[in-house]
Design brief:
Helix 3 packs across helix 5. The protein is elongated, with a radius of gyration of 15 Å. The protein is mainly alpha-helical. It has five helices and no strands. Helices cover 75% and strands 0% of the residues.
């Protein structure tokens, strides 16, 4: 529900917790999709890790400041948006990537 609320509301209507919660769950969903996709397409090594980290940071920043149009009054800094849930998302990405890659290409 927080993802739907994030994309249908304006940034001025949302609280900081709602925005960060929506971004957190978006990152988890994105990590799962990327992990499975990277496993199907046999991407290995640093290229996969770097491309995931760069893309998830860019997309979360874009969602917060371009789509939702969050102001600096609501969120303290861009670092808060980028780092919100990055490590659980990275773990989920690695887990889904390794399982999918091992099941298909091992």
């Amino acid at each position: 529900m927080s993802l739907l609320k994030l994309f249908t509301s304006k940034g001025s209507e949302l609280k900081k917790e709602d925005i960060l919660n929506g971004i957190y769950w978006f990152k988890q969903f994105y990590a799962l999709i990327c992990g499975v996709l990277f496993g199907f397409v046999p991407i290995v090594g640093f290229v996969g890790i770097a491309s995931f980290l760069v893309s998830v940071c860019f997309i979360s920043y874009s969602i917060a400041y371009s789509i939702v149009r969050v102001t600096e009054d609501v969120i303290d800094s861009a670092t808060t948006v980028i780092t919100e849930g990055i490590f659980p998302a990275f773990t989920l990405f690695l887990l889904s990537w390794i399982i999918t890659f091992s099941a298909l290409h091992a």
